[in-house]
Design goal:
Helix content of chain B: under 10%
Oligomer: heterotrimer
Number of domains of chain C: 2
Mean pLDDT of chain C: 94
CATH topology of the largest domain in chain C: Rossmann fold
Strand order of the largest sheet of chain C: 4-3-6-1-2-5
Order of helices and strands of chain C: EEEEEHEEHEHEEHEHE
Mean pLDDT of chain B: 94
Order of helices and strands of chain B: EHEEEEEEE
Number of domains of chain B: 1
Largest sheet of chain C: 6 strands, antiparallel
Distance between the termini of chain C: 30 Å
Radius of gyration of chain C: 18 Å
Number of helices of chain C: 5
Number of strands of chain B: 8
CATH class of the largest domain in chain C: Alpha Beta
CATH architecture of the largest domain in chain C: 3-Layer(aba) Sandwich
Structural class of chain C: alpha/beta
Chains: A mainly beta, B mainly beta, C alpha/beta
Structural class of chain B: mainly beta
Low-confidence stretches of chain C: 1-6
Largest sheet of chain B: 5 strands, antiparallel
């Protein structure tokens, strides 16, 4: 049974003519930037912040915030797509490419698990965070990334549903298998391609 | 958005088949006991995350997957309807 | 599909809007005719579901603004960046249908048998369920002592102002205005703090029951302060409001 239509109720925009092809199936375009979280906003002081690459219990490489700021950074303009059905076009970020970070360690791991303050995790194949497909972003829209949006730094992986772009990221764990992260454990898709509408496990 | 268990009263009723805001929940992480109404609830995300007000541990996650409510209550050691208060 | 007649089942049903009344520039009370409404307790809420023509749905919860025995009504504050409240406070009109389910809630509720003395603390639109408690107390002839401390930004933002000013007989309404006060204002100014509560809250020795409702930060500050002056946490009931 379908719900009765509410007279005159309009909502987030369906894609307009110029946007067709930029918006995956089932998504609506938003002008805002909704704040969605699974837990309290962490507030790690920058002097205590580090980003680490780990494998098998070892830390292969770690950067403090000043060291991280010394790394080459890129400005990225991307469309982002949340599994809750909103998409935001032409978002502008600044961050360090994950290629730069993984390029500093020797590894042949096929998978990563991003880990974050507060305990959130998200899993990805290494090939989806390399070759210019992912960043650790610390600026949004020309300003330092706000805490509620994942600051001081979050993962940015625009080609997948935005739950993979883990907020408050503190590092990547290199793994030989695909380990379900937070939302993947609760029924969300292990990969999450918005263009194939891979929202839930088994889609 | 961060609210409390009152905000998901309808969803909880849908999931459990009865009114649950006054159900007494025991946290598996820290042992704290209290009504679901007083838990910390994160809404509008991919799923609904219910956390312990005392330790922030995850008590329950409710995801709506292809129209079906999927509930993980692994963060609770006990959940007793109509016991609190 | 016939609505289930099993009492206690929470199902979506279609109600009809009977009236809309502007309470302030951004707040509206919506009167509803709800077929088969089973009655409700003061403090309960209902869930509203809007459906667009393409099937997109949005759900929100709103406290019931009236007492049992009165027509069901909700009071909605318009949030400018909201998705649902702009529709409910501007587009919706009498005669429209509104899909809802309720009543919901068994914790943040007050029955006369719960006694008092009652301390109600409202931040902004958090006054809505507390007004239902006030009306229920009055309709049932209860003489439980009651104080409502109601925090608003300005006098123009006070919801139900005329009605609240008329309470006597053991129900006392105390206002505080946080952003600006009119000339000659004799009420409180500024945010609810420990000093204000010390003057207004029933002493813990009287075993009061408190209901605190409003934005998350407001509720947590006030609840913490009440516990600090000796209210047992189990005697401070809270309901946090937020978003669109």
């Amino acid at each position: 049974m379908s719900s009765p239509v509410s007279r005159g109720f309009r909502h987030l925009r369906r894609p307009s003519a110029g946007e067709e092809g930029r918006v995956p199936p089932g998504q609506y375009v938003t002008q805002g930037f909704p704040v969605l979280s699974a837990g309290p906003t962490p507030h790690t002081p920058l002097p205590e912040w580090t980003f680490s690459i780990r494998q098998g219990g070892d830390t292969l490489k770690s950067w403090t915030w000043p060291e991280f700021q010394e790394l080459p950074a890129q400005t990225v303009t991307a469309d982002i797509h949340c599994v809750t059905r909103w998409s935001k076009l032409d978002t502008v970020w600044r961050g360090v490419s994950v290629d730069t970070l993984l390029g500093r360690v020797e590894h042949d791991a096929p998978y990563v698990l991003a880990f974050c303050d507060g305990g959130y995790t998200a899993n990805l194949p290494v090939k989806d965070v390399t070759d210019g497909r992912a960043w650790v972003a610390f600026d949004y829209d020309g300003q330092p990334l706000q805490a509620e949006h994942g600051g001081p730094a979050r993962l940015l992986v625009p080609h997948l549903y935005f739950w993979k772009s883990a907020k408050w990221v503190r590092g990547l764990e290199l793994l030989d298998h695909d380990e379900p992260g937070f939302w993947e454990t609760y029924g969300y898709h292990i990969y999450g391609d918005p263009w194939r509408e891979q929202r839930y496990a088994g889609d | 958005m961060m609210l409390d268990g009152n905000a998901i009263g309808g969803l909880l009723h849908e999931v459990f088949g009865t009114e649950m805001t006054d159900a007494e929940a025991t946290c598996a992480t820290c042992g704290a006991v209290g009504p679901l109404a007083e838990t910390v609830v994160y809404l509008r995300g991919p799923g609904t995350v219910v956390r312990c007000r005392n330790c922030s541990g995850v008590l329950m996650v409710i995801s709506q997957i292809h129209g079906v409510n999927c509930v993980d209550v692994g963060g609770l050691t006990a959940l007793d309807p109509h016991r609190a208060g | 599909m016939a609505r289930t007649a099993v009492r206690g089942r929470l199902t979506w049903q279609v109600a009809t809007v009977t009236s809309v009344a502007e309470e302030t520039d951004s707040v509206r009370t919506i009167g509803l005719e709800v077929p088969g409404w089973p009655g409700h307790r003061a403090g309960q809420h209902l869930d509203v579901r809007l459906t667009a023509e393409d099937g997109y749905t949005a759900e929100r919860s709103y406290s019931i603004a009236t007492a049992d025995g009165e027509p069901v009504a909700i009071t909605v504050e318009r949030l400018d960046d909201g998705e649902v409240s702009p529709y409910l406070t501007a587009d919706l009109r009498a005669g429209d249908e509104l899909e809802l389910r309720g009543p919901i809630g068994r914790w943040f509720v007050w029955d006369t048998s719960d006694g008092g003395p009652l301390l109600l603390v409202a931040g902004g639109s958090g006054v809505v369920p507390l007004r239902a408690i006030l009306r229920h107390r009055q309709r049932s002839g209860s003489d439980v002592p009651l104080r409502l401390l109601y925090s608003s930004r300005t006098l123009a933002d006070v919801i139900y102002h005329r009605e609240l000013d008329q309470y006597r007989d053991g129900a006392q309404v105390i206002y505080t205005l946080t952003r600006s006060q009119p000339p000659g204002w004799t009420g409180y100014s500024g945010r609810v703090d420990a000093a204000m509560l010390a003057q207004i809250a029933w002493p813990a020795s009287q075993h009061p029951l408190a209901f605190v409702c409003g934005p998350t930060r407001f509720v947590e500050t006030v609840a913490e302060q009440l516990v600090a002056v000796g209210y047992p946490p189990g005697r401070v009931k809270t309901e946090r409001f937020g978003g669109t």
